[in-house]
Amino acid sequence: DFAKVWGSGATCGTGCVEDICSTAAQEIGHTWNRLDHVIDNKDPMTYFSFAGRKYYQNSPTQCGSDCVNGVSPFNQTCTGTNKQEHDCICGGATQNSHNVVMSLFGAGPGNPPVVTISSPKQGDNVQPGFPVVADAVDNYMVSNVEVRIDGELVGTLTKGPFVFNAPATLADGTHRVEVTAYDPHNSVGKAMVDVYIGAPCEKPSDCSQDTDTCVGGRCVPGAGVQGGLGQPCTGNTDCASGQCATDGTAMYCVEQCAVGDCPDGFGCTVDEGATMGVCWPGFDDGSGGGCGCESSRGGPVSMMLLFGWVVLVSRRRGRR
């Protein structure tokens, strides 16, 4: 095969490179615990053609594909509809090429799937039973996609479209939606958003709990409770929102916002070019909510400095 490819003098294209790689993987595989040929055309241990990239398959696969006139290279009688199946040279009818390689070398870093959640969006106000729409792509293939709400498994799909429904029994409050995708090599990709269930609020008095305040139409723990908006923090776990921010001097629990979303005493700081920011104590975002010693708005330079200083310690975690 190598002589045929390189001896022709032709330019080697993508398909040619894939063929060279799969041929090399097959010949090397024969030296690893005597891997046999198989009939799955997606596995490099096969003689059957495959249009894409071949990977050692993580499944019990029938040995074969190498029979000539109904006889294997080790003089076994071949069976099956096309007379290309036989027992594996190490015993049994099947082999798991992936498991053999894993047992010898362990797992490599892999290329995890890339996951995006198109609905709901971060911070959306939703109803119980809301749909979750996600997309997952991988350089090889996605084997399955899982959705969890607040850590509880909601559903699993092995092929797209990846659309799920949240439980209709979810209570009011903030909930974490997490979508996890796996490829056949168990590389993992994740995406997550936090959503809110409950009647949208316009002011703190609309919230059912006196200790809550209203941010962007959702009721969240206010300044009077531990971990509430504007409370001092040292890390994300100190905050009900899972979001602790600093301006380089002070650190406070914050909530995601757009300009005008924050309650009295707070303003929404938004980085230049961004659409969402965080509610910061005493900051004046021009909507009339901010007040106190830090409330006066400076010129463009001072505003940009503040935007540059406020950084999230890490991604927000939803309140349970």
What does this structure look like?
- With 320 residues, the chain is of the alpha+beta class.
- 33% of the residues are buried.
- Strand 6 and strand 7 (152-157) form a beta hairpin.
- It has helices at residues 2-7, 14-31, 97-105, 300-309, and strands spanning 61-62, 94-95, 114-119, 125-126, 131-137, 144-149, 152-157, 162-165, 173-182, 188-197, 212-215, 218-221, 244-246, 251-253, 256-257, 266-269, 277-281, 311-312.
- It is elongated, with a radius of gyration of 29 Å.
- It starts with a helix and ends in an 8-residue tail after the last strand.
- The strands form six sheets. A five-stranded mixed β-sheet has the order 4-10-9-6-7, with no helix packed on it.
- The protein contains four helices and 18 strands.
- 13% of the residues lie in helices and 26% in strands.
Which features does this protein show?
single chain; 320 residues; alpha+beta; 13% helix; 26% strand
As residue ranges, the low-confidence spans are 5-9, 291-320
The rounded distance between the terminal residues' Cα atoms is: 59 Å
The total beta strand count reads: 18
Strand order of the largest sheet: 4-10-9-6-7
Order of helices and strands: HHEEHEEEEEEEEEEEEEEEHE
- Report the major sheet: 5 strands, mixed
C-alpha Rg (nearest Å): 29 Å
Mean of residue pLDDT values: 82
State the helix count. 4
Strand content: 25-35%
Binned, the helix content reads: 10-25%
